[in-house]
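Minutes, methods subgroup
Present: GH (chair), OT, SY

1. OT presented the first of two proteins processed in the latest run. Sequence and structure tokens recorded below as shown on screen.
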Amino acid sequence: MALHTLQNGELRLSIADAGAELMRIEDILTGTDYLWHGDSAYWGRRSPVLFPIVGSLKEKEYKYNGKSYSMGQHGFARDMEFTMTEHTVDTIWFTLRADSQTLKMYPFRFCLEIGYRLTGRSIQVMWKVSNEDKKTMFFSIGGHPAFLCPINGEGKRQDYYLIFDNPEPLHYSKLNKNGLVESENHCLETQNGVLAIRPDLFDEDALIIEGGQAHRVALADPKRRPYLTVTFDAPLFGLWSPAKKNAPFVCIEPWYGRCDKESFDGMLADREYGNELRPGKSFQAEYTICLSAPEAV
């Protein structure tokens, strides 16, 4: 697996051709790692892209133009080899295009570009989806970065906090055993936007927070000092750590798309939070990971 590096005076990033996945975020001055290292005892991935679907399909298939297509959870891009197409001092881009393998699962000719830009202590994760087909294309895309919690082995996960830019309670959806939305409008009570990471917080899988309720989520240490903040414009996001494993990481996942509901019985074009592109058009989105200065942690 080929790895590429972006580095400045503060941070070093490693990105793989496989899935164009961010593999490591390292503080050069302190040696601190911020990204989960992919131990398969908990979860073997680190920061995969979710494309062309986010989450699970009902019955693991979808309908388009009178046909049914099968696809696994979160789509196929995370398992494919990208081509590195640009590498400058502070930016790197990777490209994946439709081929005979993808067309069996997803009948659209697309170009997916994933970029990373390193500025100071901020990492900009960029997506560009282009429709290279002659028909309208329907897709979802999302991030799934896993961040170490605790950081530097200090304390336990339940000693840490999530901090949202919304001081009001957040409403979220739950998933069933098949990864489909089974119930909505659960309430996540916070203290003015601060949520303690209880040991049982993820026992029922991911928390799906829809409707643009928050656009900035921070992980904070036992003294409630944020050490990492994810900022996004996405209409929904997921919070996840493996159920009942007390894994030492938390995923903060900006999404433009979502798994199906148990009751869903529509076409690909009907999937909630889905996106559509006319032929020749492109979709662009991004999110930012910002790390606090060492003295602030």
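2. SY then presented the second protein from the same run.
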Amino acid sequence: MLDLAIIGGGPAGLTAGLYATRGGLNNVTMFEMGMPGGQITGSSEIENYPGVTGEITGMDLMIPWPEQCQRFGLKHGMVEVKRIELKADGNFTIHKGDGTSEDAMSVIVCTGSTPKRAGFKGEDELFGKGVSTCATCDGFFYKNKEVAVIGGGDTALEEAFYLSNICAKVYLVHRRDTFRSAPNTIKRLKETANIELVLNTTIVEAYGDAMGVNGLKVMTPEGERDLQVPGIFTFVGMNVNNGILMDEEGKSICALNDSGNVIVDLKMQTNIPGLFAAGDLRIDAPKQVVSAAGDGAVAGVNVITYIDDKLNG
């Protein structure tokens, strides 16, 4: 039986493995179907990871992590995990995609979340070349330039405010003429001089060339409009990767919020003893590499205490 099974090989999962094994756990496996690293490996440039200076890609940032995290005995199980089963004795069964299973005394789930695509023409082709889902990651590249933000939820409005402090102008494109945010947020939005609301509008297409995005064509009530922007940010929701927490009846084995994020305490522990969640999967996650790594460290340290209490308490 494993002391600890870690599901997911991004910054949270890798750091959890590092802290758990370095802290004394001997039988720890991180399950990740592909090479470890997570979503950040797709970023073209990282400027906000502490201690990292100069030009570095997300891939370059993550390359040394697996070797460091495996130095103390972390094993990499290159197999898909289908689901986690809570057993009657309080342990867990990890059901794998190859038809086999493995038991574990504790589990840290670090499967993250995936930004939803808006589904307009040109989005996929230009993703990472001017189309982004992270203003904190990529906003600085458009300093003193014009950008478009697509969406009408809290995240879209917050990111529009963030970008308005960097960019010359922000076009906030929304398919409706109303927002579901707090009245004060909407009031602030309308009072921000360099945010232009483009409402009751649908996306026609994003267009560009080998160098990246050149603009966004939209259909407004007055007709088609061409927003000649080099950057497009889409915020139309997240797909929480919580499928492995569902039992055979489709019910989660631990508590989730209305958005499907895992509810955890400050120790990253769920309402199920021995089951932890870290990174973008958990509630109120900032969705930054440094935060995910911090979550993993917290979970890894607290798993050690949990296992010690379970065996000796």
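Chair's summary of item 2: The domain at 123-234 is CATH 3.50.50.60 (FAD/NAD(P)-binding domain).
Next meeting: continue with the remaining queue.
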